[in-house]
């Protein structure tokens, strides 16, 4: 069920030179890979490429051995902010992946799972930042994706809400088989969530740490 990724000699950019080059990376099925790096190091760029939103200039990106050529409902994305459709209620935002796949619109269990029961009919602007990220989490998982790509999803939240969301994420991921790539600039978040931690810098992946410590990550950053 969970997806594996393989990047082989990947070069990524936006038409004016490479942002990342020579990227070789394997992500195992069911793994949670945290990606850290300073601002501008290319974390979002890497994630966009895994999502199929950005094609490499060179090299290959494979998902379960198949080249990634565009987006797929198998690979759900969660953004830091503005990931929801502002004119749709909580329920109708969460239903979206099911509508696209013409599946039954059975979302109540996920809305309850993320702690939003009773708020189904609210619009995103009527929710707190943390609640909006709960909606994104439910929407990402409701269709049973094989991978979830998360771009600093808790980066704009206060410390307590962020800690609550990290706990919720670890909890709900136990019920899914999804592979997760989680981008953050927060070393502690990467340590808490990641099975492994990839450190980006100087246009590439500096290292992938299997048993990461705070000191080791800070050394590499
Ligand atoms: N759409 C775009 N068009 C042109 N250049 C871009 C685009 N998106 C990002 N870049 C450039 O690519 C580089 C890497 O950006 P990216 O957003 O991947 O970094 P990041 O590590 O996610 O940063 P942050 O932590 O600040 O979000 C930056 O130099 C940025 O200016």
From TrEMBL:
Q: Does the keyword Cell membrane apply?
A: no
Keywords, comma-separated and alphabetical: ATP-binding, Nucleotide-binding, Transport
Task: Extract the GO molecular function terms from the UniProt entry.
Answer: ATP binding; ATP hydrolysis activity
Protein name (database record): NitT/TauT family transport system ATP-binding protein
Question: From what organism does this protein derive?
Answer: Nonomuraea soli
PROSITE patterns membership:
ABC_TRANSPORTER_1, ABC_TRANSPORTER_2
The question of whether Cell membrane is a record keyword is answered with: no
What the entry lists under InterPro entries is as follows: AAA+_ATPase, ABC_transporter-like_ATP-bd, ABC_transporter-like_CS, ABC_transporter_ATP-bind, P-loop_NTPase
Highest taxon in the source lineage: Bacteria
SMART domains referenced in this protein's UniProt entry, alphabetically: AAA (SM00382)
Enumerate the spans annotated as ABC transporter domain: 5-221
């Amino acid at each position: 069920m969970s997806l594996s990724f393989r990047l082989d000699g990947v070069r990524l950019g936006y038409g004016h030179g490479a942002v990342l080059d020579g990227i070789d990376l394997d992500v195992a099925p069911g793994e949670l890979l945290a990606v850290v790096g300073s601002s501008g190091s290319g974390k979002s760029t890497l994630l966009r490429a895994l999502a199929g939103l950005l094609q490499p200039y060179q090299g290959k990106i494979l998902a379960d051995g198949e080249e990634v050529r565009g987006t797929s409902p198998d690979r759900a994305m969660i953004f830091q902010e503005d990931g929801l459709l502002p004119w749709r209620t909580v329920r109708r935002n969460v239903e979206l992946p099911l509508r696209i796949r013409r599946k039954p619109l059975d979302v109540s269990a996920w809305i309850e799972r993320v702690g939003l029961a009773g708020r189904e009919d609210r619009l995103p602007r009527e929710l707190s930042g943390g609640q909006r990220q709960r909606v994104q989490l439910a929407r990402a998982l409701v269709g049973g994706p094989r991978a979830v790509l998360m771009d600093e999803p808790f980066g704009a939240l206060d410390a307590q809400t962020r800690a609550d969301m990290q706990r919720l994420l670890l909890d709900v991921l136990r019920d899914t088989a999804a592979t997760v790539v989680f981008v953050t600039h927060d070393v502690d978040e990467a340590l808490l969530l990641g099975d492994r931690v990839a450190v980006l810098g100087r246009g590439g992946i500096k290292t992938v740490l299997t048993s990461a410590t705070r000191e080791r990550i800070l050394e590499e950053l």
